[in-house]
Amino acid sequence: MKKILVTGVAGMVGSHLVDELLEQGGYEIIGIDNLCFGRKDNIIHNIGNPFFKFYNVDVLDMETLKILGKDVDIIVHLAAVKKISEKESALPTLQINNKGTENVLELARMWGSKLIFSSTSDVYGMSLDIPFKEDGDLLIGPSMIKRWSYAVSKIFDEQLAYGYFRTYGVPVVILRYFGGFSPRSSFTWSGGHIPIFINAILKDEELVIHGDGTQTRSMAYVSDLVHGTVLAMENDQAVGEIINLGNDEEMSVIDTAYLIHSLAATGRELKVKFVPMEEVFGKYRDITRRIPDLSKARRLLGYSPRVNIREAISSTIAEVRNNLNASTGK
Q1: How many Cα atoms sit within 13 Å of 42 on the Cβ side?
Q2: What is the pLDDT, as a whole number, of residue 78?
Q3: Which CATH code of 3.90.550.10, 3.40.50.2300, 3.40.50.720, 3.30.360.10 fits the domain covering 2-181+220-248+291-307?
């Protein structure tokens, strides 16, 4: 039985990863989360399972990490402070992401653990090399724009991970997650546009689109991200590699809104409000297209997305609708 430590366990990917590992069997899982972004509701159904232990612990608490990480075979590091707007401070994103990752890398070095590090497609920035390839150049905007702090923190963390891999021999796998969603997503912009759109349409609220909606994204259902993560955990060929994970279906933001409205079949008119980018992100320039090249994931991991965008949205609508009905007593 392998012993696994998952940071950020109460988030979307972390909670679904625990579900998958417990269903497969053969894993003893320690999950930590400070619950600032993750929700205990996401993991409550696994509390009491003898193969899963949850601790309300921050990744900055190195002394506790040293205890919980003893004899762990694999660490999956998902904890992070996500994207920010120009109204928020960039310091938590920069400081927590970098110090937290350094702590987890040191923990892996200390106990001889394999580390799966969750990076992000944000690191590709404004690159025009579409689809994004792992060995492509990264094009980041001006330092005075706070919105870039998330991408910059993850780029630094990737370099730090490679430093531990090359200097100390820590077996590291870097996964660049492209957008993902599920009914457990954060219904804020850090969780992506699809959960927000679903929530707004089901509640008959105004749907806000930044810019004109022609920007495209490639969004994966969480089960595909989890599947790729488990493959990376168990594959020694992935060590020392950066690998894109996600879905390579491309769809514009406005077309996604139309699709969600159609699949939700509420019988009500779609209400859309377009908000200029500069009102939300200041001088930050939004990425116009974001599509992964998945050839490396296919070659190294045998990975391919299994759920198309239409199926993923339909499934999420159904569960979110059930949750809303339950909360209102319908």
Answers
A1: 24
A2: 98
A3: 3.40.50.720
Kindly give the interhelix angle for 193-202 and 309-328, rounded to the nearest 10 degrees. Answer: 50
| Mean pLDDT score of the chain | 94
C-alpha angle 196-197-198 in degrees, rounded to nearest 5 = 95
Would you say residue 88 has pLDDT above 90? no
Q: Are 35 and 57 in contact (CB under 8 A)?
A: no
Q: Give the other-Cβ count within 10 Å of 302's Cβ.
A: 10
**pLDDT single digits (tens) 166-200:** 999 999 999 999 999 999 997 776 678 999 999 99
Distance CA 151, CA 121 (A): 8
150 is catalytic: yes
pLDDT reading at 50 higher than 90: yes
- Selected catalytic residue, list 150, 164, 177, 303: 150
